[in-house]
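Colleagues,

For the teaching module next term, I've prepared a clean inverse folding example: a structure given as tokens, and then the sequence designed for it. I'd like students to try predicting residues themselves before seeing the answer, so please don't circulate the second half yet.
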């Protein structure tokens, strides 16, 4: 009976090793690409800024506050160049001096993706304007998230990520020691090269396993938003079924960005403004995005205030703290994936983790090839 159990365990371990090998050969290279691009993207705004000195002018100047006329000046400068009446502008409030980052979204149905724009610190000039995907860091972002293939690419990334989780789990289970843990965790420096490759592969995977699981799982959730919503929906507070907030055009002029920012601050006084979306369509609302205490992501927080663009009246407020457990969990997904959860330390750790799939792929392939060569000699 004991021999039968050992035989069954041996067959299961062989099957796990085959599954691990097949998955490594099929999705391993994609794992490498996603890991390397992910490492580059951890500091992508800083890298992009370093590559474009024009947007660094005035970086040591004080950051404009919410009363500064620079916001409306920048919007007027942008509208002077792009005249699409149905487009939308998004200005980013970075809390730093220097160029003002912005995005211009053409009206639905118009050709072209969003335009990334940087205004001078005083808002009077456009110092840089490039289409999203048309410069290095945005190209890497699209490669990482969608394999440069749009929505279909997101599906490929997401479901391949599920296969990568199985790859990691099968590697762990196939390795699981039957005897001494100390021996199983050792790196034998004096062993044959094929054994050293195996040990390097094994230890690289073991020491990074937990964090890689977090990284890959959050990547799957980001790539498959419909799946994420379905998983978290039971824990979320159902939102009332209503149309998006609309502005009422009573013939008045559009309010200034400064007025909109003050209205948002009154609605969420403990919030920190991060983005303001200003539409050109007369029935759309101005949307201000804020980070409130408890929201982990500083750059892409989940709280919004919708403001009538003519009267300045607050039309709706979405406070992420009142949206239920599901929304709270979802708010942690991005910050866990990009390493911003713990500041510079966890971001550096995320960079290093992104390099691990390359180590695992190279050592795994070399070990497999040497084993194959040994069998044929």
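(Answer key — instructors only)
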């Amino acid at each position: 009976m004991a021999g039968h159990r050992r035989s069954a365990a041996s067959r299961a371990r062989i099957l796990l090793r085959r599954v691990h090998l097949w998955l490594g050969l099929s999705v391993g290279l994609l794992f490498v690409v996603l890991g390397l691009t992910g490492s580059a993207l951890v500091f992508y705004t800083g890298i992009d800024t370093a590559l474009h000195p024009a947007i660094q002018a005035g970086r040591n100047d004080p950051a404009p506050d919410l009363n500064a006329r620079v916001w409306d000046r920048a919007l007027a400068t942008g509208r002077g160049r792009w005249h699409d009446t149905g487009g939308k502008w998004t200005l980013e409030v970075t809390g730093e001096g220097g160029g003002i980052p912005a995005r211009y979204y053409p009206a639905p149905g118009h050709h072209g993706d969003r335009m990334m724009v940087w205004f001078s610190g005083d808002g009077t000039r456009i110092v840089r304007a490039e289409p999203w995907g048309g410069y290095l860091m945005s190209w890497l972002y699209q490669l990482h998230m969608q394999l440069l293939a749009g929505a279909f690419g997101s599906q490929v990334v997401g479901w391949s990520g599920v296969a990568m989780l199985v790859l990691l789990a099968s590697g762990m289970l196939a390795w699981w020691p039957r005897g001494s843990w100390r021996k199983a965790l050792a790196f034998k420096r004096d062993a044959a090269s094929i054994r050293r490759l195996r040990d390097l592969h094994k230890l690289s995977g073991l020491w990074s396993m937990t964090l890689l699981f977090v990284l890959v799982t959050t990547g799957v959730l980001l790539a498959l938003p419909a799946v994420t919503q379905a998983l978290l929906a039971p824990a979320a507070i159902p939102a009332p079924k209503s149309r998006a907030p609309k502005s009422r055009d009573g013939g008045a002029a559009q309010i200034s960005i400064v007025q909109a920012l003050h209205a948002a601050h009154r609605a969420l006084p403990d919030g920190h403004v991060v983005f303001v979306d200003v539409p050109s369509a007369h029935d759309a609302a101005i949307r201000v995005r804020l980070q409130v205490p408890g929201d982990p992501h500083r750059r892409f927080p989940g709280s919004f205030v919708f403001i009538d663009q003519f009267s300045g009246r607050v039309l709706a407020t979405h406070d992420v703290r009142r949206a239920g457990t599901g929304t709270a969990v979802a708010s942690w997904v991005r910050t866990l994936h990009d390493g911003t959860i713990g500041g510079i330390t966890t971001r550096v750790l995320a960079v290093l983790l992104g390099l691990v799939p390359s180590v695992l792929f190279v050592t795994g392939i070399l070990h497999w090839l040497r084993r194959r060569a040994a069998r044929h000699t």
